[in-house]
Amino acid sequence: MIIVVRLGDDVKQFAVLSPGFALEICPLCGEATLRVWDWYDRLVPCTGGDVGVRIKRYRCHRRACRCLITVLPDCLLGGAVYPALVRDIGAEEYLSGRSTYQQLAQAIGCSQSTAWRWMRAQTRQAGPWLNTCRRWLADLGLGVGPLVLPEHMRAVWHSWRIRAEGMLEGLLCAGALGEWVETLRDALQRARGHVLPGGLWASGSHVLDRLGLAPPHNAERRVPP
Ligand SMILES: [Zn+2]
Protein backbone atom coordinates (compact mmCIF):
# COMPACT_ATOMS: atom_id res chain seq x y z
CA MET A 1 0.00 0.00 0.00
CA ILE A 2 1.21 3.51 -0.81
CA ILE A 3 0.36 6.42 1.46
CA VAL A 4 0.92 9.87 0.04
CA VAL A 5 2.01 12.50 2.55
CA ARG A 6 2.48 16.23 2.22
CA LEU A 7 5.66 17.42 3.91
CA GLY A 8 6.45 20.82 2.44
CA ASP A 9 5.81 22.24 -1.01
CA ASP A 10 8.61 20.50 -2.87
CA VAL A 11 11.26 17.78 -2.79
CA LYS A 12 13.79 20.01 -1.02
CA GLN A 13 11.38 20.70 1.85
CA PHE A 14 10.48 17.00 2.01
CA ALA A 15 14.17 16.10 2.32
CA VAL A 16 14.51 18.52 5.26
CA LEU A 17 11.28 17.60 7.07
CA SER A 18 11.03 13.84 6.49
CA PRO A 19 13.71 12.72 9.04
CA GLY A 20 11.44 14.11 11.79
CA PHE A 21 8.31 12.46 10.41
CA ALA A 22 7.16 9.02 11.51
CA LEU A 23 3.97 7.13 10.76
CA GLU A 24 2.63 5.31 13.83
CA ILE A 25 -1.04 4.46 13.34
CA CYS A 26 -1.74 1.64 10.90
CA PRO A 27 -4.34 2.81 8.38
CA LEU A 28 -5.71 -0.74 8.03
CA CYS A 29 -6.16 -1.87 11.62
CA GLY A 30 -6.04 1.52 13.37
CA GLU A 31 -3.47 0.40 15.96
CA ALA A 32 -0.25 2.24 16.85
CA THR A 33 1.80 -0.73 15.66
CA LEU A 34 3.69 0.62 12.64
CA ARG A 35 7.48 0.40 12.63
CA VAL A 36 9.99 1.40 9.95
CA TRP A 37 10.68 -1.76 7.92
CA ASP A 38 13.24 -0.56 5.39
CA TRP A 39 14.02 2.36 3.12
CA TYR A 40 15.74 3.35 -0.06
CA ASP A 41 17.51 6.56 -0.99
CA ARG A 42 17.04 8.20 -4.35
CA LEU A 43 18.33 11.28 -6.10
CA VAL A 44 15.57 13.44 -7.53
CA PRO A 45 16.51 15.85 -10.36
CA CYS A 46 15.43 19.36 -9.35
CA THR A 47 16.19 22.90 -10.42
CA GLY A 48 19.64 23.70 -9.06
CA GLY A 49 20.79 20.07 -8.80
CA ASP A 50 19.77 16.64 -7.56
CA VAL A 51 18.15 16.32 -4.14
CA GLY A 52 18.55 13.15 -2.06
CA VAL A 53 15.40 11.81 -0.41
CA ARG A 54 14.80 8.74 1.73
CA ILE A 55 11.63 6.76 0.98
CA LYS A 56 10.59 4.67 3.99
CA ARG A 57 8.47 1.56 4.20
CA TYR A 58 6.60 0.66 7.37
CA ARG A 59 5.38 -2.73 8.58
CA CYS A 60 2.43 -3.21 10.93
CA HIS A 61 3.55 -5.42 13.80
CA ARG A 62 0.07 -6.62 14.67
CA ARG A 63 0.13 -10.29 13.78
CA ALA A 64 -3.34 -10.30 12.22
CA CYS A 65 -2.46 -7.34 9.97
CA ARG A 66 1.22 -7.25 8.93
CA CYS A 67 0.52 -4.71 6.16
CA LEU A 68 3.44 -3.01 4.40
CA ILE A 69 3.18 0.70 3.67
CA THR A 70 5.36 2.89 1.46
CA VAL A 71 5.27 6.59 2.30
CA LEU A 72 5.55 8.69 -0.86
CA PRO A 73 5.85 12.50 -0.77
CA ASP A 74 3.05 14.15 -2.74
CA CYS A 75 5.60 16.10 -4.78
CA LEU A 76 6.78 12.81 -6.36
CA LEU A 77 4.91 10.48 -8.69
CA GLY A 78 5.07 6.71 -8.22
CA GLY A 79 7.70 5.16 -10.47
CA ALA A 80 8.75 8.51 -11.98
CA VAL A 81 12.25 9.99 -11.83
CA TYR A 82 11.35 13.68 -12.06
CA PRO A 83 9.17 15.43 -9.46
CA ALA A 84 5.62 16.37 -10.41
CA LEU A 85 6.47 20.08 -10.46
CA VAL A 86 9.04 19.64 -13.24
CA ARG A 87 6.37 18.06 -15.45
CA ASP A 88 4.03 20.94 -14.62
CA ILE A 89 6.66 23.53 -15.57
CA GLY A 90 7.42 21.66 -18.80
CA ALA A 91 3.75 21.36 -19.72
CA GLU A 92 3.15 25.05 -19.05
CA GLU A 93 6.03 25.97 -21.35
CA TYR A 94 4.78 23.69 -24.11
CA LEU A 95 1.09 24.60 -23.78
CA SER A 96 1.87 28.31 -23.91
CA GLY A 97 3.71 27.83 -27.20
CA ARG A 98 6.99 29.14 -25.73
CA SER A 99 8.94 25.87 -26.06
CA THR A 100 9.08 22.90 -28.39
CA TYR A 101 9.96 19.41 -27.08
CA GLN A 102 13.55 20.05 -28.03
CA GLN A 103 13.77 23.35 -26.11
CA LEU A 104 11.92 21.80 -23.19
CA ALA A 105 14.31 18.87 -23.01
CA GLN A 106 17.30 21.22 -23.08
CA ALA A 107 15.88 23.46 -20.33
CA ILE A 108 14.99 20.56 -18.04
CA GLY A 109 17.95 18.35 -18.85
CA CYS A 110 15.87 15.35 -19.89
CA SER A 111 15.78 13.63 -23.26
CA GLN A 112 13.53 14.88 -26.03
CA SER A 113 11.61 11.60 -26.03
CA THR A 114 10.95 12.02 -22.28
CA ALA A 115 9.54 15.51 -22.89
CA TRP A 116 7.35 14.07 -25.64
CA ARG A 117 6.15 11.20 -23.44
CA TRP A 118 5.19 13.65 -20.66
CA MET A 119 3.11 15.78 -22.99
CA ARG A 120 1.55 12.72 -24.63
CA ALA A 121 0.63 11.35 -21.20
CA GLN A 122 -0.79 14.72 -20.20
CA THR A 123 -2.97 14.98 -23.30
CA ARG A 124 -4.30 11.47 -22.61
CA GLN A 125 -4.99 12.22 -18.93
CA ALA A 126 -6.49 15.64 -19.57
CA GLY A 127 -9.94 14.43 -20.70
CA PRO A 128 -10.58 12.06 -17.78
CA TRP A 129 -9.18 14.57 -15.24
CA LEU A 130 -11.31 17.33 -16.74
CA ASN A 131 -14.43 15.15 -16.42
CA THR A 132 -13.58 14.35 -12.81
CA CYS A 133 -13.17 18.08 -12.06
CA ARG A 134 -16.46 18.84 -13.80
CA ARG A 135 -18.38 16.18 -11.82
CA TRP A 136 -16.94 17.12 -8.43
CA LEU A 137 -17.22 20.86 -8.99
CA ALA A 138 -20.86 20.43 -10.02
CA ASP A 139 -21.44 18.42 -6.83
CA LEU A 140 -19.92 21.26 -4.82
CA GLY A 141 -22.28 23.69 -6.53
CA LEU A 142 -19.59 25.28 -8.71
CA GLY A 143 -19.85 25.71 -12.45
CA VAL A 144 -17.05 25.50 -14.96
CA GLY A 145 -16.53 27.58 -18.05
CA PRO A 146 -16.34 26.29 -21.63
CA LEU A 147 -13.13 25.07 -23.24
CA VAL A 148 -11.73 27.93 -25.27
CA LEU A 149 -8.90 27.57 -27.79
CA PRO A 150 -6.49 30.46 -27.25
CA GLU A 151 -6.41 32.13 -30.66
CA HIS A 152 -2.61 32.44 -30.84
CA MET A 153 -2.22 28.68 -30.22
CA ARG A 154 -4.03 27.80 -33.43
CA ALA A 155 -1.08 29.12 -35.45
CA VAL A 156 1.52 27.61 -33.08
CA TRP A 157 0.02 24.09 -33.20
CA HIS A 158 -0.37 24.37 -36.96
CA SER A 159 3.31 25.29 -37.36
CA TRP A 160 4.33 22.43 -35.05
CA ARG A 161 2.43 20.01 -37.34
CA ILE A 162 0.75 18.16 -34.50
CA ARG A 163 -0.73 15.06 -36.06
CA ALA A 164 -0.81 12.32 -33.40
CA GLU A 165 -4.33 11.02 -32.91
CA GLY A 166 -6.24 12.86 -30.17
CA MET A 167 -3.29 15.19 -29.49
CA LEU A 168 -5.02 18.46 -30.42
CA GLU A 169 -8.11 17.64 -28.37
CA GLY A 170 -5.82 16.62 -25.51
CA LEU A 171 -3.85 19.86 -25.72
CA LEU A 172 -7.07 21.85 -25.65
CA CYS A 173 -8.23 20.02 -22.49
CA ALA A 174 -4.77 20.19 -20.92
CA GLY A 175 -4.65 23.96 -21.46
CA ALA A 176 -7.89 24.43 -19.53
CA LEU A 177 -7.17 21.84 -16.87
CA GLY A 178 -4.79 23.77 -14.60
CA GLU A 179 -7.40 26.37 -13.67
CA TRP A 180 -10.13 23.76 -13.09
CA VAL A 181 -7.87 21.67 -10.88
CA GLU A 182 -6.97 24.70 -8.76
CA THR A 183 -10.66 25.63 -8.39
CA LEU A 184 -11.52 22.08 -7.28
CA ARG A 185 -8.53 21.97 -4.94
CA ASP A 186 -9.58 25.23 -3.24
CA ALA A 187 -13.19 24.05 -2.95
CA LEU A 188 -12.21 20.67 -1.45
CA GLN A 189 -9.79 22.29 0.97
CA ARG A 190 -12.50 24.73 2.11
CA ALA A 191 -15.03 21.92 2.47
CA ARG A 192 -12.76 19.65 4.48
CA GLY A 193 -9.98 21.76 5.93
CA HIS A 194 -7.31 19.46 4.44
CA VAL A 195 -4.24 20.58 2.53
CA LEU A 196 -4.12 18.87 -0.85
CA PRO A 197 -1.17 18.62 -3.27
CA GLY A 198 -0.59 21.66 -5.44
CA GLY A 199 0.14 21.56 -9.15
CA LEU A 200 -1.43 19.55 -11.92
CA TRP A 201 0.47 16.26 -11.87
CA ALA A 202 0.51 15.88 -8.08
CA SER A 203 -3.20 16.73 -7.87
CA GLY A 204 -4.03 14.54 -10.84
CA SER A 205 -2.11 11.46 -9.72
CA HIS A 206 -2.76 11.65 -5.99
CA VAL A 207 -6.26 13.14 -5.85
CA LEU A 208 -8.11 13.20 -9.19
CA ASP A 209 -7.33 9.57 -10.06
CA ARG A 210 -8.96 8.51 -6.77
CA LEU A 211 -11.86 10.96 -7.00
CA GLY A 212 -12.50 9.68 -10.53
CA LEU A 213 -13.31 6.25 -9.09
CA ALA A 214 -15.71 7.62 -6.48
CA PRO A 215 -19.26 8.85 -7.17
CA PRO A 216 -19.33 12.56 -6.22
CA HIS A 217 -22.35 12.51 -3.93
CA ASN A 218 -22.26 14.69 -0.82
CA ALA A 219 -18.75 15.80 -1.62
CA GLU A 220 -18.60 17.84 1.60
CA ARG A 221 -18.81 14.66 3.64
CA ARG A 222 -16.46 12.63 1.49
CA VAL A 223 -12.89 12.49 2.76
CA PRO A 224 -10.30 13.16 0.05
CA PRO A 225 -7.27 10.90 -0.20
ZN1 LIG B 1 -2.15 -2.95 10.96
Q: Could you characterize the architecture of this molecule?
A:
With 225 residues, the chain is an alpha+beta fold. The chain folds into two domains: 2-73, no CATH class; 84-211, no CATH class. Helix content is 45%, strand content 16%. Strands 1-4-3-2 form a four-stranded mixed beta sheet. The protein is globular, with a radius of gyration of 19 Å. The protein binds zinc ion. The site of zinc ion has 9 residues, from loops.
**What is the count of DSSP helices, taking H or I runs of 4+ residues?**
7
Termini distance? 13 Å
Encode the helix/strand succession as letters.
Answer: EHEEEHHHHHH
Could you say which structural class the secondary elements and strand pairing correspond to? alpha+beta
| Total separate domains | 2
Q: Care to count the β-strands?
A: 4
Ligand species: zinc ion
Q: Please give the largest β-sheet.
A: 4 strands, mixed
Proportion of beta-strand residues: 15-25%
Helical fraction equals 40-55%
Low-confidence stretches: none
Q: Indicate the overall shape.
A: globular
Rg over CA atoms, rounded to whole Å, is: 19 Å
| Average pLDDT number | 88
